[in-house]
Specification:
By secondary structure, the protein is mainly beta. About 5% of the residues lie in helices and about 40% in strands.
Length: about 350
């Protein structure tokens, strides 16, 4: 049996439906090879152990107008352990996921896992170990390495695999983004707003510094009951800014920002769903973010949801994938009703819906 800092020994079979959801699909991840694009074939000398073959399948709740892309897959291993890496695509800005399982009868202990030189926290179950990593949106294209180090009881061994990361051409806005009163420097300098801005920043810093146990199961959910993107991930945008000169409002130099999440269309009050199991660590009205909910999924994996009209959870609540956490709105720095959803993996923001292509299990 694998050993780890956070060991969870249970199997989950999850069946759920959420109002407003037009379809529910179950995806057999590893065992359904046809649904997974492969870069490498499995190591020929490796026999898939019985426990790994019986691992829970991924259950994805998604609207009928959203079809997740099948994940890319890379396989590596030796006579003791097989490692499988997954990503929607091994390209900048995507979430990555790995699973490792041992040959039956082998007594191996995983010591550490790294991707691009960064340590990856991992969780072990009775079928193997798994963990999440981020492909930085500005990672250098080309070859990088994933390495798993383990002990076979006598020696320390490594399995290292090269992963080729593709370059992504992100969109660039051709228009100056005017946020109305939020582009007015005098408005932003009001004392009562400065206080809220400071409190909001402190709440985010505190929440996103939490290190907790992995809580993601084999269940995932799209955050909306319909799928229409209105704001692309990592889009470069230039924000307008104005100052008063006498009685006139004069345009001054704005600032450049990269959109760290995804904007999804929705009418005011339309349901917003948690993308995975976790614990609510933020549920408050903020200045720029408006009504914001953040969910801690463990090992510093967070999803958060902004500009909501209402919040139906509070800090400390435990939510499951597909639970309603609030309603779409246009609060904070928003020019119209929509949901801003984001996924942060140990401080790196990746495309939030790339999570839905991963064959997660627990």
């Amino acid at each position: 049996m694998f050993k780890n800092k956070s060991v969870s020994l249970f199997l989950l079979v999850l069946l759920f439906a959420v109002s407003g959801c037009s379809s529910t699909t179950a995806r057999e991840s590893v065992n359904d090879i046809k649904a997974v694009k492969t870069d490498n074939e499995a190591v020929k000398s490796y026999q898939v152990p019985d426990k790994y073959s019986e691992r829970p399948i991924t259950v994805l709740r998604s609207p009928s107008d959203f079809k997740p892309a099948p994940s890319d897959k890379v396989v590596a291993g030796d006579e003791n352990i097989r490692v499988i890496l997954y990503a929607k695509e091994f390209a900048q800005g995507n979430a990555g996921y790995f699973e490792a399982d041992r040959e039956d009868g082998k007594n191996c202990e995983i010591l550490r896992v790294t991707y691009a030189g960064e340590n990856i926290p991992f969780t072990c179950t009775e079928w193997g170990c798994r963990g999440f990593f981020a492909i930085h949106p500005e990672a250098k294209p080309g070859k990088t390495f994933f390495t798993l180090t383990y002990s076979d009881g006598n020696n320390e061994k490594k399995i290292s695999v090269a992963v080729k990361i593709k370059d992504v051409k992100y969109p660039v806005s051709r228009y100056l983004l005017d946020l109305g009163k939020f582009s007015d420097k005098e408005y932003l300098s009001r004392p009562e707003f400065k206080k809220l801005i400071k409190e909001s920043a402190a709440a985010r810093k505190k929440a996103f510094s939490i290190v907790s146990e992995d809580s993601i199961t084999n269940a995932l959910s799209h955050p909306r009951d319909m799928h229409k993107v209105t704001g692309d991930y990592w889009k470069k945008r230039i924000y307008a800014a104005y100052k008063k000169k006498g009685k006139k409002k004069v345009k001054v130099r704005g600032h450049v920002s990269y959109h760290r999440g995804l904007d999804l269309k929705g009418d005011v009050g339309a349901p917003v769903y948690s993308m995975a199991d976790g614990k609510i660590v933020i549920a408050m009205k903020m200045f720029y973010e408006g009504n914001m909910v953040a969910v801690d999924h463990g090992n510093q994996v967070f999803t958060y949801y902004m500009h909501m009209d209402s919040m139906s959870v509070k800090v400390g609540d435990i939510v499951r994938a597909g639970d309603i956490i609030g309603g779409v709105g246009s609060t904070g720095t928003s020019t119209g009703p929509h949901l801003h959803v984001a996924l942060s993996i140990r401080g790196v923001h990746v495309h939030p819906l790339s999570l839905l292509s991963l064959p997660v299990s627990r």
